[in-house]
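HUMAN: Now follow C-alpha cell order:
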Amino acid sequence: MTEIREYWRIIRARWYIPIILTVLTVALTWLTAQTPPPTFVASTRFTISVSADRPLSGVDPALTGAQASEYIRDDFVEVIRSDLFARDVNAVLNDPQLQISKANISGAVEKQRRIMSLSITWPDAAQAKRIADAAVMALAEHNAKYFAQMGAQGATVTILDEPTVVAVTPSLRERLDIFIRAAIAFAAGIVLIFILDYLDDSVRGARDVEKMGLATLGEIPDRGK
C-alpha cells in the first residue's frame, strides 16, 4: 500500500508531462496526416486448361494435358508477378498514359477448386477494370510463352467472372493510428515522470532524510497535499 501511495505521489507531482506529450502527439499527427489516395482492386476468376487429348511438344514429350494444366497452376502466381507479364499487359493496353508494373498485379490459386484469380491494384476504378481485362487477354494470347510445358499451341483461358472493382478500405492499423500514437505518448510521459523523479536528488520528506542516514524528530505536513 505504501508503494502505491509513493507511485501516486510521483505521478501527481508531474501529472502534466504525459498530458502535454499526448496532446502534442495528437495535434502533430492530425496536422501532418495526409489523406491517402483512393485505391481500387479489380479482381477476376478464371481457369487455364490444356486439352487432355492434345499432343504436347513441350519440355516433356510424354506430358499429358492434365499434367500441363497442373504445372500452369503451380507457376501461375510467379508468372503474373513478373516484369514480362507486366510488359505484355501494357502492350495490350497500348496506352502511353496507362502503364502498370508488376507491383500492381497479384494472383492466387484455389488449390481445392483449381481456380485462379487475378487482381489489379490501381487508383482509378475504371482504369483498374480496363487493366484487368487487358491482363486476362495477355494471359490468353501469350500463355504459351510463359508456360513452356504446353508447347507452342498454348492453353485455353476460361473467364469465370467478369472483373469486379471494389474500393480498398483503410486497414484497422491505419484507422487506429492516432489512438495508438496517443497511447504510446501517454505511456512515454509516465516513464519520463519516474525517470525525472529518480534523478531528482532534492529532499521531499522524512523518508528521503532517513535514506541519507539522518534521524528525524518529526515532519510538518504539506497542507497543499
In short: Residues 42 and 129 are 6 Å apart (CA to CA). The first strand starts at residue 40 and ends at 49. Residues 2-34+172-210 form one domain. The chain has two domains: 2-34+172-210, 40-167.
